[in-house]
Every structure is written in C-alpha cells, then in structure tokens.
C-alpha cells in the first residue's frame, strides 16, 4: 500500500527539501532520521489505523489498535528494513513504513504479527539487528488478510496530484 503522507508531515518534508535544494552545492543531505522518522511513522499509524499511542516506556509497544492489539511501529527513510533490539515485552502486531522523503509518500511494507517478522532474525542476539527489505516483504506476503490491521479511512494515493509539490 503506497500513499501520500498527511498534509502536516508533507509540509515538514517540503521544508526539508527546500533547505536541501538551497544548499545543493554543499553536498549536505539534511537527512531526517533517528527519532524523528520513528515519530513520523507512529503519527502515520495513528492517523491511518487509529493506533492509540502510549508514552515511551521502552517496552517495545508503541500503542494499541482499535481492536486492542498491542502495536509496534517502525519506519525508515533510508530504504533499509526495520531494526529491532531486545526488549522485555513484544507487541502483538507490527507496522513498518518506508518513507520517501523526496516524493512525500510512504509505503507500508509490513502489516502483521510482529513475531512473524522477527522469525527472520537468528536468536539470541545482542544489541540491535535489522531485517532486510526483501525479508520483511517476504514476511508480509505470509500474513493472512484477517491478521492485518485495516485502515480507518483509505489514505491518499501516492498519485494524488498535489502531494508532491503543494502541501
């Protein structure tokens, strides 16, 4: 599922792109990464899927779906897969978004049981481990339709005329 980012997030991305373009000769990329990208993913999940976000508490659960399932939200703007660390509590469900900062779009690459995604990792591990994009796509292909979270309302399609230029 590919879709245009919500207006308020597109405004941030467009502002970042203007700064990057203004300083194009400097080779600075003005990459939005780290906590900001994760926060954007959580905001998108809340908007599209109605996830009720919880305060950061280090448990590996970012919120709860309308049906009560615990949810972990991951997002990347680097074309890499999701990274995981060992936590005491795992979520029942995982949403993983790839954010395209140039096109102001996002793609949902995984929507299913977190355990299914984690099965790509060799256990035990220490520190942080990443699941590749091909692995997360393969795991997503194994998710049964009834296991997926359904959007509250369909997001704007990525072809939405003004999504790229005019937030």
Q: How does this structure look, described?
A:
The structure is a single chain. This protein is 27% helix and 22% strand. It starts with a strand and ends in a 26-residue tail after the last helix. It is of the alpha+beta class and 167 residues long. A hairpin with a 5-residue loop joins β3 and β4. The model is unreliable at 160-167 (pLDDT under 50).
Principal-axes geometry comes out as globular
Number of strands: 8
Rounded radius of gyration (Å): 16 Å
Strand order of the largest sheet: 1-7-6-4-3-2
Q: What distance separates the N and C termini? A: 21 Å
* Order of SSEs: EHHEEEEEEHEH
Strand fraction: 15-25%
Mean pLDDT: 85
Biggest sheet statistics: 6 strands, mixed
Strand pairing plus helix content: what structural class?
alpha+beta
Roughly how much helix do the residues carry, as a percent range? 25-40%
User: What's the tally of helices?
Assistant: 4
Low-confidence stretches: 160-167
